[in-house]
Design a protein that fits this description.
The structure is a homohexamer. By secondary structure, chain A is an alpha/beta fold. Chain A has helices at residues 18-32, 51-55, 61-79, 97-110, 127-142, 184-191, 199-219, and strands spanning 8-13, 36-41, 82-85, 114-117, 159-162, 176-179, 230-235, 239-241.
Chain lengths: 245, 245, 245, 245, 245, 245
């Protein structure tokens, strides 16, 4: 039986704000349940997701990255997660073998009980599926006895894909609806750190409200369970259980 | 908090042996956990799944049905479930509006916490998808305030499709692997009640062994969890949860 | 060249409120563009979608149907559409050959330039796909020279499936985003006629806001086009055109 | 080893001309190889596929059916097949339990080595998938020992879906390309029996030419094999073999 | 309101003849409507699509490329398009980050109103999906404010995948049928520039005739619209519109 | 007509044991039928599939590779196949353009009548789909006249994907069931060469027994054909034939 204090989770985010919009509730919720949650931002989203910053003028790529880093750190702190940045660049986010091993090493170090990352398809954003695939492959490598032999390998933590911007176009179908009602205030506070993307604040608030209505529908209208905010996830592997209720 | 003694489950089986091969482990496991499990057999499989009985010669359809009923009752008793028979006929299994309401009434009476039934596609057996669809629609009707107004409606119990005979041909993809190691002896004893289908005993024993190896792979080779027998299920609706581990 | 005043559209709704939530914007928009829009409600949704009415107590099915009819008529009037009711019953919505011909006759009479109806899959609501299939088949029959020979057949109007309640679970993927900004006030007024389903008012308002953000993304952030409310549709047939822009 | 003279095949056609356009080559080819091929036409296509006949004026439904029957008989004769007509009506083609048994009895009588019928999806024509499903279910019933016990059951003949009018819209993907070069003259002669559908003669000639180019591509450009005309088929079941070449 | 004279389109072709077979009609049609159409050929198809040239003997790769370039230029001129060649090599067509930026720069320069390229899957030709993905990612990068900050970004032009050689095997399903009747003579003249691939001239002529019959079916047999030649396209993004007719 | 003695087949295996578990029966069967079968192992599976060897301690990567090579050679010898090793490394298995050409050259040299390799999807193992794609692309390059002009190109040999470890999770659907009953003893002897993966011996024995039951079901229970062991394959291309039985 593992002690809650030893439970860990890993979140891999293509750009430095993705983990907030898409998984901020899951992070805060599991932190509240005693998990250590670690976030890896593969890039700062400096080129592709910082339009408002660029429009200020007189910004260098380094300036944009610093601003984005500060915003992400502030958000992670609110959510209660640790965070690190790989700074791989975005648009395009390309990773080589060393980047893959670097992420596998994070898996080995964190020993996550579950993993959150992007969907495997997104015609609007090629960096997102690349981040998802990098995460999945790093997890596989971290499971291999022959990778850095002698180190402790990881188990088979479930991988959940968080919600993309236009779910149906990404062939993303949620099979988990996570009730984040109790931590919504934290998620919304974290969202507000993203000053460069204010147009998305209300978009993801509404998304959480819609998923909550759906969650309610999936437990039954008659149930006493109140759900006001939720996040959707698609799992990539079967779950192993002894209870179907 | 619901008392375990009040937890219920419903299993809908197209023919009188399907619930044994495909869901016997889930039934015995949940009975052991304090559930009341109720099985509805829509037909006896008298035409399509009783070849060995017919080959004995001198059998009428009524004889075959009686034998099949007795086998199913014996199996249900071993598994610890209650059972009833709709006797709708098989090959083809056709249901009309009254049959649909009859099943909706079972839903209302049982108030299941989860439901097990067939996959939604099976090119080898048209009765199986029909049973699945009948079950799904009966569940929806039992949720409606306007159906027999004044009766207690049901919530939104999850529906799991159990494993068909040739999984890939039925487009069935398991997202749940249920560890049935502790109740395998009961499942195998129930299987042995099906004297007319001895060729399937070892087929479904091997299926349980294969799913166990896969379950083990999905919790991680390094885990201490021993899994010897498992059943696969495909869920039809998202699950609502507060825990992703 | 057809005069706008002669343009017609047909909307087929399983229950008496579906056309409002799902297609109210399209109806008002095309009425404003000079179309005659006709709505067929196959049922009143008296059993399955009138929970609030039933909870009032002392309601007969006839009472519920009358209330639902009045609400639908008021909504249609606001949107500017004509409306008729087939009263086929709901939960389950079953149609026989005569119902199919009745709908084919509506197609012949209306001669629609396009058709709106439900998605072809919905695990939460079996009436919706049935309505979609009935509509599609009625359209095919109305195209046949040998059905009521001598009558004017119809052309091949495009069929669009409007948005179901839980889009991803219904495998519904929009390929058309309709800008309904200019008629949102009419749609919201029509929505407010549905007194029995107040919980859905804000759900479908948010849905329209989300689809608008997505529409904006699909014309380009830089575009001057302001889109505040939108509806999504999935088309069932290829469109024939001479212009790809 | 079965004697060629005892080999049989069954073709189930929704309307009386479908077997010609879609499977005429397969029929003539297997007749030439010593098969007995039997065609069942479920309807005459009197309503939905006889536009040219209706436009002649002064035709009753009975007249149209007689003309269509004569055309189909002439085509079958050219192809070398026997033919029978179920006269179930078209647009819509509805079958009840007795029709299903009637077709199962044909399966028992013919004992086919393979079966040809329609695709399982066709948004342009609801009769086609219905014919496909009726055929598949009749095959399953004819396999059951308990259906008319004592009669010889059938084996598990492969089922091939022939090409629909708009292949991609029907989600039809051919996995078999049948070289019909040697019998093309017979197929084209049979096609010409369909006087009411002259617009389709060249459409299906071109289809055969296109499939031939594709077949050539799938054996290799360098191969000496000359293929001028082909038909595409999608198989519904895995084939069992001892040779992968 | 944009002046027609300012409308632009971009076509990205893996090999130097693809744009002719697959999009020649769309190009000529939009040129006739006042568009500037620009074609990028990523390679000459020198290895994989020049069999006839190689069989002449005494050809170097440079000779083949020169011949292919001349053919493509002649075809583009007939169609009225400008053309450039990236010369990335074929079989395999590999692109690195600089090639991606080069294509993004073309997007910035051309500012296309729509984009034509290959399907996203093709088991017969790995260069085609690579070209499609390169095009899609270049479009995304050209939309990003942070890529070459200060330059004018592009909007969100629709992307259409043109028809692959074996449509069903490529999971390509057309949702647009483009009537190219008025420019067929130009397309066929351009096709005839491809002297090395004469076997494809009639293949793509028949393809255009088949798509025309299908287009006719999708506007309705009764319509007065004459369509003799058409091209099929699959769109990758939802279209935003205010008119469903 | 090609002499049996000249018939060849090619098997491409990501790791050095895959060809045994997944295709050992097909290899032995075709060797018995007079084929020359050649196996290419892209890696030794030294990191990812040699857990038992690593747990011995005191092993270097070179030691593991030598052991795995010896096991694979012994297995190939039992099956009757020739074998070569590309030693590309595993976890991850990355191939560059030169590796692709090296495999294309094997295709040219072997001139295979059919090809066996991995499935195109596997969320548990990224090396497997990479091996499948490398194989498919090498085949395409070997077909091109312009690749090493003057060499004999290959035809269009069918490609079959062998069974992955968790078939449904890999979206792998068998359309061929190969009866390997007569060579099972050879396959099981080859399996026993894999001393490092003893846990898989019984897994793949049971897999062969299950596929045999399914094969039997697909030829018909009534058939006299005895099938005790089988392998499943998914074909990637349509087969061209003149016989549908």
């Amino acid at each position: 039986m593992v002690n809650n204090a030893e439970k860990n989770a890993l979140v891999v985010s293509a750009h430095s704000a993705d983990f907030v919009w898409r998984a901020g509730g899951a992070i805060a919720l599991h932190v509240a349940r005693g998990y250590q949650v670690h976030v890896v931002c593969l890039s700062f989203g400096e080129r592709g997701e910082s339009a408002k910053l660029w429009r200020r003028g007189n910004m260098s790529e380094e300036d944009v990255k610093l601003t984005r880093r500060a915003e992400a750190q502030a958000a992670a702190e609110i959510l209660g997660a640790s965070i690190e940045f790989f700074d791989l660049g975005d648009y395009p986010l390309y990773a080589d073998k060393e980047d893959l091993f670097r992420l596998a090493d994070v898996f080995r170090r964190v020993q996550p009980h579950f993993v959150l990352t992007h969907s495997v398809s997104d015609p609007y954003n090629y960096d997102h599926p690349r981040a998802s695939n990098l995460t999945q492959e790093a997890r596989i490598i971290a499971q291999a006895e022959g990778y850095r032999p002698g180190e402790a390998i990881i188990g088979a933590p479930p991988v959940y894909c968080f919600e993309p911007h236009q779910s149906e176009q990404c062939l993303w179908k949620p099979d988990v609806l996570l009730d984040i009602t109790t931590v919504w205030d934290k998620k919304y506070a974290a969202i507000q750190c993203m000053e460069g993307q204010e147009h998305l604040w209300e978009y993801y608030t509404r998304a959480a409200l819609q998923r909550a209505v759906q969650a309610k529908r999936n437990v039954g209208i008659a149930s006493a369970h109140v759900i006001s905010y939720a996040e959707g996830y698609q799992s990539l592997f079967p779950r192993v259980t002894e209870d179907l209720s």
